[in-house]
Design goal:
- The complex is a heterotetramer of chains A (about 475), B (about 170), C (about 550) and D (about 240).
- With about 170 residues, chain B is an alpha+beta fold.
- Chain B contains 8 helices and 4 strands.
- Chain C folds into 4 domains: about 100 residues, Glutaredoxin (3-Layer(aba) Sandwich); about 200 residues, NADH-ubiquinone oxidoreductase 51kDa subunit (Rossmann fold); about 80 residues, Ubiquitin-like (UB roll) (Roll); about 90 residues, NADH-ubiquinone oxidoreductase 51kDa subunit, iron-sulphur binding domain (de novo design (two linked rop proteins), Up-down Bundle), CATH 1.20.1440.230.
- Chain C is globular.
- The chains are: A alpha+beta (about 475), B alpha+beta (about 170), C alpha/beta (about 550), D alpha+beta (about 240).
- Chains in contact: A-D, B-C, B-D, C-D.
- Chains B and C meet through α3, α5, α6 and β4 of B and β9, β13 and α17 of C.
């Protein structure tokens, strides 16, 4: 008899989703799908609103990386105003962006994923979380909490608010300059932050050995990679152009204008998911699947531009063939390296003599009817694309969220892990956890990606080969 | 002579305008006569268009928003041109209890018009009203001013079809 | 006009009346007009000429006789022969048989004596018996004598005292003592003072005021003039619904007639009292019937009620002391002055004197306009006067008091009609509407209908009424489509309490009544809708066959 | 010299058990605030006429089963006023919930977030969910005015803007159209704001808007709100009284 197993909810990811596992007639895993069951219609919701509310509105899509939306949206609005923002404003925006990536990566690694591999995938689920971690590795948990706070404190220092700092980044720049006290305050914490980041990398390296088996089948598959890079191919998060890397490690396209994304990215639709499936137009769907995010950025970047991160990048590239690391598990590693890079970048930005200038906003009124803003969010490339009417009211919105870029990859990874670990005849926690773990490695931010309102319970459902539901588990 | 402002407001200096201004004079340009003036204007013009409202607001020295607010507060005033023919269905209690809703639905379906609206060709408007006071003969429909008591959808539709046909000839 | 002129005119008219053996009263009110009343009128006029009886038979165009279900109706005096469904052909036959041959045409007579038996006509004393467009007709039956009496033989305080002693309460709905209200206005400082006659009867299913204005406009005018004298006002407004064109026309002509006779204007009956009336038209806003909204409307503004105090008695039209009375209240006044407060107080119930006009409609055999003494039971009204529900149907509920009135079930039919009893039972007197429902009506659907009415008519000023009622409507609408749970009933009750208590004016304060009384007396129907998706009247769940709705 | 001003009669009453003296003719709300007794209110705006529409400032008066809007009810000798009973709290909560449900008041994406009187009141009253369904009105946003924006989807119809425009600025550009739940704040003949000829662009309306319906473009709501205006209104009013 053929069945389908459905995993729900995928705990410890942002937002909730549903995984269905489809079995063939022999009861073996044939396919697995990562679903999004609810739809927020955020793009629709924005229609009719004034463009200058967009940074505020879109940053509300997500409570985890509001700054990413804020930045992408503000950049799209800069485009609508057709202004070049003051250099200090750019420095400050970058600074906030670094803070954002640090706190997001810290959250992903310490809070959400580290319990998996520090406590073991088969450990008691009720303990397999940050609280369980704090019990067994109190020092690590504490460091994780501190590092996240460091990132948040940068955001807070700049905007005055920790989470939704929506009115600080505005079209044309930022609202308020940074004070000398602010600079000193953040700089004082930099050494400790670096120390924690490096410790974490050491810890990760130590533990990697224990996961050799899992890692082999842990979403180790080939895709294209996409990210922003600097003019000279370096690691970039705020600006830059698009580079696309082939699975073999060849740069197949470079310095593409990100505002023309629709020329090279297509978006397919599947009737079982509200998420779109972006693919590279040149390659086609679904072969043109690509991955974005920390792994993609490090694969794409020839260098980081900061001392410690450059060294780490060199080590990282050794882990893959032709310098391309394909294993989904390595997203964790890439994330840690990026944390180091960001902290170094924070220091560099704070030492820029222009950081304290008070010229932080360019004023202009609406000059264009269409604007695109692209940045590298913690989870990957984020596109905001708006069209407005003559009064500046939004008439059309397209958002491609980092997690959505990874959509095809998600499904591939889930299927691969399910095939290896899920046996249709037996359902046990550990096996289901592994499916969940791979999802967590990719770190989907579902509330963004699906535009879902509130909590979205994720269920695991089991379907037979006829497509009928035969079992369902809901957890949490 | 009609007020000079009228032409600026885009109103034709015809008999209707003279009658309207005469009525306003009769009320000595008093602001509190607004409702009466609007009644007169609607009787003369059939509905209150923008130019008419601007003119009234100037003559009575009332803020335009006040005039607009009053004109839209009361159901009776029409700001859009109604159809050539008007069907009004009474939705008073007695009529509702005796099936006025069916009359409305029948007209809506047959002539593709929503209550309160006018057909695309401007031929027929359908309004509902709250109690015309002929409750003993409920349900009531008024087709071009003629009251049909104890109305049924068939009778009302027949009547409307008849006037629409007559129009064509 | 001099006092003597009134007397001699009355005498002349009375003699003229006597010279006719018959008087044919053709009802030409809004109820009968659509059914060819004017054609019937001219058919009678032609017929009396044709048969050569014009010298002994007077054909009068009158107001409502009260039997709207047999329109057009014709009343022949003497003997009060009431003919039903008269057509021009039948008119001819009636003249031939009844007038010429002296044999009333039994087959055409309205045989329902019970309809009139329990009625008592004070307000409608002249309705159907005089020509409303002839002021002489009104004077012939004693019209304007009360005004003459007041102006020449009574002090303003004396008039107020008489009205107060009669125990007359406002007929507009709230039931405030009329004499007391007058006294407040009389004592208020400020000048000039105004009198407003409220004829903005917007309640669906109610047409008593309209009928009164169409049948006996001078009774209203005389009542107003007396009130003005009592409170010291010199200017009056009649605020009338524009949806009542015939009433507007009749009142307009009546005011002109009274003015040309000197019964309105300067120095009436050669006294120092001057009073004139202006007609003000509403424009389709139910809320404008509210005391303070009517003021706004007359001042040419949006008819939005304002909080009281200050009461219109202190600060009304343009901030001046203003008396606002319903037209039915005012029509009582001349009779009270002529017959005395003692006589009036002896009619009706102990704490609620006089009579009340009701439009009796809905699923009842004899709909029409009735006037009954206060204290009569609902059962008498519905089953004796109204003749009960149509054959084969079962009585379900009676709604008293228009859209804000409550629904009362069978077991409360023995309730006497007075302000207190009705309010206690959850209904209100309102401006006088009684709608009878039988088993083809769904109480949930009906509550929804009235709530929707109030949603449409809410002025939007205060939150409970503007938003609360709409939310209430949405919940009720859900019930009729198979949505909602028993917990929602609790929510409905809480919401109703808030709307009732916190609304600014009477519209909002009474709007939850239909919902509250149906919940109180017909809760099982709500439960059946919610739990079984069942509507015993077959009105609901039309879309979607019972479960889920749309 | 003869006394020009007739001294106002002073009366005594109690509010929440506290004895206070007040000028005859003053409203309960005014007297309470003068005595540091907080009665919440939304449509009330010092310096312009009272409206009495929001029903948030309801109070009880001993001896009456009814509740009274304190912004429009004058004080009287010996009155015993209760401003904060369970019943009043219940009613206030309903009023705020209904307002929140009337139009799409999504605080998180509103310009007034953090400086909104409705939001503050909801927080104060512990409104953490709505018992009735929200409406998702889709009124068109008006951005035609060079400096100001009007978003009807956030309007609570308190009419502060209408009153200040009429009574203080004296132009009466703003009024309401339609009625009941369809009521909407309009400029001139329901014109787009930027084309409303009578508007003097004084900005008072947006300064007194308690929510995010009228606001200054590009300026954070919190900065454009009524602080400086309140003093303006008060000074204007005292001028009026003296003159």
């Amino acid at each position: 008899m053929s069945r389908e197993i459905i995993i729900s909810p995928v705990t410890r990811i942002e937002g909730h989703a549903k995984i269905t596992i489809h079995l063939d007639e022999e009861g073996m895993v044939k396919d697995a799908r990562f679903h999004v069951t609810d739809f927020r219609g955020f793009e629709k919701f924005c229609e009719g609103r004034p463009f200058y509310e967009m940074p505020g509105i879109t940053s509300r899509i997500c409570g985890i990386c509001p700054v990413s939306h804020l930045l992408a949206s503000a950049k799209a609005c800069d485009d609508l105003l057709a202004v070049k923002i003051p250099r200090t404003a750019e420095l400050l925006r970058r600074l906030m962006h670094m803070g954002q990536i640090i706190q997001s990566h810290a959250l992903s690694f310490f809070y959400l994923s580290s319990p998996d591999f520090l406590l073991g995938l088969d450990s008691e689920p009720s303990k397999r979380n940050i609280l369980g971690l704090a019990e067994k590795y109190p020092e690590i948990a504490k460091q994780g909490v501190w590092l996240r706070k460091f990132g948040q404190s940068i955001i807070e220092t700049l905007s005055g608010r920790r989470i939704h700092s929506s009115d600080w980044i505005v079209p044309g720049g930022v609202k308020t300059p940074l004070s000398k006290e602010g600079v000193d305050k953040i700089l004082a914490d930099v050494p400790k932050a670096i120390e924690i980041a490096l410790n974490s990398i050491e810890l990760f390296n130590k533990n990697m050995e224990n996961f050799k088996n899992e890692m082999r089948d842990f979403g180790d598959f080939q895709t294209y990679y996409m990210s922003l890079v600097t003019k000279d191919g370096g690691l970039e998060h705020y600006d830059g152009n698009i580079r696309i890397l082939s699975p073999e490690g060849k740069v197949v396209a470079d310095q593409l204008d990100p505002s023309k994304y629709f020329e090279y990215i297509g978006e397919a639709v599947e009737d079982w998911s509200y998420m779109k499936f972006p693919y590279l137009k040149n390659v086609g769907y679904p072969d043109g699947a690509y991955r974005v995010g920390p792994l993609a950025r490090l694969n794409n970047a020839s260098h980081c531009g900061t001392e410690m991160a450059d060294n780490l990048l060199k080590e990282f590239k050794k882990l893959g063939k032709n310098g391309v690391v394909q294993n989904t598990f390595m997203y964790h590693y890439a994330r840690l390296i990026e944390i180091v890079f960001c902290i170094e970048k924070v220091k560099e930005l704070l030492q820029d003599p222009e950081i304290l200038s008070t010229e932080v906003q360019a004023k202009a009124s609406l000059n264009k009817r269409e604007g695109v803003g692209v940045i590298e969010a913690p989870r990957g490339t984020l596109f905001h694309h708006y069209k407005v009417d003559e009064q500046g009211r939004i008439t059309w919105v397209n958002l491609i969220i980092a997690t959505v870029n990874n959509n095809i990859a998600f499904n591939k990874a889930v299927a691969q892990v399910a095939k290896k670990y899920v046996n249709g005849k037996k359902l046990n926690e550990g096996m289901l956890n592994k499916v969940e773990a791979v999802v967590r490695a990719l770190d989907p931010c579902l509330s963004c990606a699906t535009h879902a309102i509130g909590r979205m319970p994720v269920r695991i459902q089991l379907y037979d080969h006829n497509g009928s539901l035969i079992d369902e588990i809901a957890r949490g | 002579m009609p007020d000079a402002g009228a032409q600026q407001a885009g109103l034709k200096a015809d008999r209707r305008l003279m009658l309207l201004e005469a009525a306003i004079r009769k009320y000595q340009y008093r602001k509190d006569a607004l409702l009466e003036v609007l009644h007169t204007a609607q009787e003369l013009y059939g509905y209150l268009d923008r130019d008419l409202l601007i003119h009234i607001s100037k003559l009575l020295r009332l803020p335009p928003s006040h005039v607009y607010g009053v004109a839209t507060f009361y159901n009776l005033f029409k700001l859009k041109k109604p159809g050539t023919h008007v069907v009004t269905v009474c939705m008073g209690t007695a009529c509702y209890v005796k099936g006025a809703e069916d009359l409305v639905l029948a007209v809506e379906r047959e002539f593709n018009v929503k209550r309160g609206g006018t057909t695309a060709d401007g031929k027929l408007s359908l309004f509902v009203t709250r109690c015309i006071g002929a409750c003993a003969m409920a349900p009531n429909a008024i087709v071009d001013g003629e009251t049909i008591g104890k109305a049924t959808p068939e009778v009302v539709l027949k009547k409307i079809r008849a006037i629409m046909e007559a129009e064509k000839d | 006009m001099k006092p003597d002129e009134l007397r001699s005119l009355a005498q002349k008219e009375a003699e003229a009346r006597k010279s006719y053996r018959y008087r044919i009263n053709v009802c030409c009110s809004s109820g009968c007009m659509p059914f060819g009343a004017l054609k019937v009128l001219s058919a009678f006029k032609d017929a009396v000429k044709e048969f050569g009886v014009e010298g002994e038979c007077y054909v009068a165009r009158t107001g409502c006789i009260g039997t709207c279900s047999i329109a057009p109706a014709v009343l022949i005096e003497p003997g009060d022969y009431l003919y039903q469904n008269v057509t021009p052909d039948r008119a001819k036959e009636i003249v031939k048989e009844h007038i010429v041959n002296g044999r009333p045409v039994k087959s055409m007579l309205y045989g329902n004596e019970a309809y009139f038996k329990k009625q008592l006509r004070i307000v409608l004393r002249n309705a159907g018996k005089i020509d409303p467009l002839r002021i002489e007709d009104y004077i012939a039956v004693g019209g304007y004598y009360a005004l003459l009496k007041a102006l020449t033989r009574m002090t303003p305080e004396g008039v107020i005292e008489e009205v107060a002693l009669s125990g007359l309460k406002g007929r507009g709905g709230a039931g405030f003592l009329t004499g007391l209200k007058w006294r407040y206005v009389a004592r208020a400082t400020g000048s000039p003072k105004y009198v407003i006659a409220n004829l903005d009867e917007g309640d669906p299913g109610v047409f008593a005021n309209r009928t009164l204005a169409e049948a006996d406009p001078h009774a209203i005018i005389e009542g107003m003039a007396i009130a003005a004298y009592a409170v010291g006002a010199s200017k009056g407004y009649i605020y009338v619904r524009s949806e009542y064109p015939l009433a507007v026309e009749t009142l307009k002509k009546a005011i002109e007639a009274a003015r040309s006779m000197g019964l309105l204007g300067e120095k009436i009956f050669e006294t120092a009292f001057s009073f004139d009336i202006e007609l003000r038209l509403g424009a389709g806003a139910f809320v404008a019937g509210e005391e303070t909204a009517i003021l706004a409307s007359i001042e040419g503004r949006r008819a939005m009620p304002r909080p009281r105090p200050p009461y219109p008695a202190q600060s009304g039209l343009w901030g001046k002391p203003t008396l606002i009375n319903n037209v039915e209240t005012l029509a009582n006044i001349p009779v009270i002055l002529l017959k005395g407060s003692e006589w009036f107080a002896s009619i009706g119930a102990k704490n609620c004197t006089g009579t009340k006009c009701f439009s009796l409609t809905g699923k009842v055999n004899n709909p029409g306009l009735i006037e009954v003494p206060m204290g009569i039971t609902l059962r008498e009204v519905v089953f004796e006067i109204g003749g009960g529900v149509p054959p084969g149907r079962r009585f379900k509920a009676v709604q008293v008091g228009g859209p804000s009135g409550g629904f009362l079930p069978e077991q409360l039919l023995d309730l006497p009609i007075d302000y207190e009893s009705l309010t206690k039972a959850g209904a209100i007197m309102g401006s006088g509407g009684i709608v009878v429902l039988d088993d083809t009506s769904c109480m949930v659907d009906t509550a929804k209908f009235f709530t929707e009415f109030c949603v449409d008519e809410s002025c939007g000023k205060c939150v409970p009424c503007r938003v609360g009622l709409y939310k209430l409507y949405k919940i009720l609408d859900g019930f009729t489509r198979g949505e909602g749970s028993l917990e929602d009933l609790q929510k409905v009750e809480e919401l109703c309490e808030f709307i009732k208590e916190a609304s600014l004016c009477g519209l909002g304060q009474t709007a939850p009544n239909p919902t509250l009384t149906t919940l109180r007396y017909f809760r099982d129907e709500y439960v059946a809708h919610i739990l079984e998706k069942k509507c015993s009247a077959g009105k609901c769940f039309k879309n979607g066959g019972g479960v889920g709705g749309e | 010299m003869a006394e020009v001003w007739e001294a106002s009669k002073m009366i005594e009453l109690t509010i929440d058990g506290k004895k206070v003296t007040a000028k005859e003719g003053d409203t309960i709300l005014k007297v309470a605030r003068e005595n540091n007794i907080y009665i919440p209110a939304l449509c009330y705006l010092e310096g312009v006429s009272s409206f009495g529409g929001c029903r948030v400032c309801l109070v009880e008066i001993k001896g009456s089963p009814r509740v009274f809007a304190s912004c429009v009810t004058p004080v009287a000798e010996g009155m015993e006023i209760i401003t904060n009973s369970e019943r009043l709290k219940r009613y206030r909560k309903w009023a705020v919930e209904l307002l929140l449900s009337e139009r799409p008041h999504v605080c998180s994406v509103c310009v007034a977030n953090g400086s909104c009187e409705l939001q503050q009141l909801a927080t104060d009253l512990g409104v953490d969910h709505l018992r009735v369904e929200r409406e998702w009105t889709n009124y068109e946003l008006d951005l035609t005015h060079e400096r100001f924006a009007y978003d009807p989807n956030r309007c609570i119809l308190c009419t502060r803007c209408i009153r200040i425009c009429d009574e203080i600025e004296g132009v009466h550009t703003i009024d309401l159209m339609l009625r009941g739940k369809n009521s909407k704040v309009i400029f001139d003949l329901n014109d787009k704001w930027g084309f409303a000829e009578s508007c003097t662009s004084c900005g008072k309306c947006s300064a007194v808007c308690p929510v995010g319906a009228l606001y200054v473009k590009g300026k954070p709501h919190s900065e454009s709100k009524r602080k400086e205006l309140a003093s303006f209104v008060t000074s204007r009013r005292s001028e009026k009284t003296i003159g």
